[in-house]
């Protein structure tokens, strides 16, 4: 049987409705082993050709058509009324128009430094007797530049196509020069995701591109320093990719700062910092809030090469902790990033004897059937189990009958996920009756 033509979709851009050219349609979904994302959801319905009012809607080409299958993007169409769903606004772009009724048109544009990929305007049209939909996908705003000469005082550099996957066999070089020759450059990483070990971003001091003596970092994967500060009024970046699979790329910002400074490294989430000086010789001290453990160095010093002696530490939720406060939050370790393998964590929430504990689940996402969270009515391992949870279905709130709650978190040796976020409160038991 001869095919009816192909449409291929990838990335976050929502497709417009599609109408087949024959009475069959094949969907083929392929993924690699690098990343996990939310995926897709689509609706389909079968209609006679005479019922399809496809004016302005993309159709798969064919000469013979009697009965069509229309594949309707769940977020791109609406049923039962004459208003299309909100098409959204492109990241790093703008939208003109807020009327989504049938026949209305909205217009898109991009911020300075980005170019529009897709339709500048889309119109809400009737697709079938039951559905209305947009005439085209929402466009995206992509970074067109692969390298270039940049001048301060500040700006943004992104990989080509960002936030969509970058191209293979890229070789891009940027040179940043301060507007004020007496200043130096601070580079801050906002997004970073490269194919580990194959695609790299090299950051160097000055303008001698490729000189190994000037290289600060050769970066790959998802790990980056907090920031990089040059020793002169110039800095270079070189982005190289191979001929295989890529990733989402990077976004970095740069700005001029005074010489003799390492820049502000920031404060870790769920942490605090002592010290406010970022000049040569200044020292910063970091601590974490209760129930969190420090990962990294407690103290870092600004060195004469404008770099901190170590990366800013992080604060990770402890795998073992006894809570004695009347309320608080309880997180899986490393939340909202992925928790680790082979974990066995135990937390106790201890309140006054006349109190009871309420647990409200704000988020839950664990490897189904292999990673578990158990809530027990009491502080012992053999206390009655109030619930055991896995997967991503958010549980209803739980109230204990004891004044102590025990939570146990177990993971296996394979896949991990985001974990959980729980708010707990304690009140006199009469308040729960």
TrEMBL record:
Database matches in InterPro entries: CUB_dom (IPR000859), Sperma_CUB_dom_sf (IPR035914), Sushi/SCR/CCP_sf (IPR035976), Sushi_SCR_CCP_dom (IPR000436)
Molecular-function annotations in GO: serine-type endopeptidase activity
Domain CUB: 146-257, 319-427
Disulfide bonds: 288-315
Composition-biased stretches (Basic and acidic residues): 89-101
Pfam family membership, one: CUB
GO cellular component: extracellular space
Keywords from the UniProt entry: Disulfide bond, Hydrolase, Protease, Serine protease, Sushi
PANTHER family in the record: COMPLEMENT COMPONENT 1, S SUBCOMPONENT-RELATED (PTHR24255), CUBILIN-LIKE PROTEIN (PTHR24255:SF31)
Protein name per the record: CUB and Sushi multiple domains 2
Organism placement in taxonomy: Eukaryota, Metazoa, Chordata, Craniata, Vertebrata
């Amino acid at each position: 049987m001869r095919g009816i033509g192909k449409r291929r979709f990838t990335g976050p851009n929502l497709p417009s409705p599609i109408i087949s050219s024959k009475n069959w349609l094949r969907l083929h979904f392929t993924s690699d082993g690098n990343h996990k994302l939310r995926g897709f959801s689509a609706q389909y319905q079968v209609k006679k050709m005479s019922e399809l009012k496809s004016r302005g809607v993309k159709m798969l080409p064919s000469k013979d058509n009697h009965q069509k299958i229309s594949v309707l993007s769940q977020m791109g169409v609406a049923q039962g009324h004459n208003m299309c769903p909100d098409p959204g606004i492109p990241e790093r772009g703008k939208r003109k128009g807020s009327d989504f009724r049938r026949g209305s048109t909205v217009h898109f544009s991009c911020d300075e430094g980005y170019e529009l990929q897709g339709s500048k305007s889309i119109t809400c049209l009737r697709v079938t007797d039951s559905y209305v939909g947009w005439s085209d996908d929402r466009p995206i705003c992509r970074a067109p530049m692969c390298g270039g000469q940049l001048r301060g005082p500040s700006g943004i550099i992104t990989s080509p196509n960002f936030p969509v996957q970058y191209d293979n066999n890229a070789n891009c070089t940027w040179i940043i020069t301060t507007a004020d020759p007496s200043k130096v450059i601070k580079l801050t990483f906002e997004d970073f995701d490269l194919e580990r070990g194959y695609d790299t971003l090299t950051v160097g001091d000055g303008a001698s591109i490729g000189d190994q003596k000037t290289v600060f970092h050769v970066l790959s994967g998802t790990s980056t320093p907090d920031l990089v500060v040059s020793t002169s009024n110039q800095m270079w970046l070189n982005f190289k990719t191979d001929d295989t699979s890529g990733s989402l790329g990077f976004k970095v910002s740069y700005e001029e700062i005074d010489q003799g400074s390492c820049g502000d490294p920031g404060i870790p989430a769920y942490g605090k910092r002592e010290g406010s000086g970022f000049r040569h010789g200044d020292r910063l001290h970091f601590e974490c809030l209760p129930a969190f453990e420090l990962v990294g160095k407690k103290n870092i010093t600004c060195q004469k090469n404008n770099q901190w002696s170590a990366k800013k530490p992080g604060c990770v939720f402890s795998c073992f902790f006894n809570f004695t406060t009347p309320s608080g939050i309880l997180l899986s370790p490393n939340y909202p990033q992925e928790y680790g393998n082979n974990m066995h964590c135990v937390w106790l929430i201890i309140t006054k004897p006349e109190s009871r504990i309420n647990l409200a689940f704000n988020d839950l996402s664990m490897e189904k059937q292999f990673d578990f969270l158990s809530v027990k009515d009491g502080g012992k391992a053999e206390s009655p189990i109030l619930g055991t949870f896995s997967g991503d279905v958010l549980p209803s709130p739980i109230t204990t009958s004891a004044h102590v709650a025990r939570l146990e978190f177990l993971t296996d040796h394979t896949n991990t996920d985001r974990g959980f976020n729980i708010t707990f409160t304690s009140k006199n038991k009469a308040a729960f009756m």
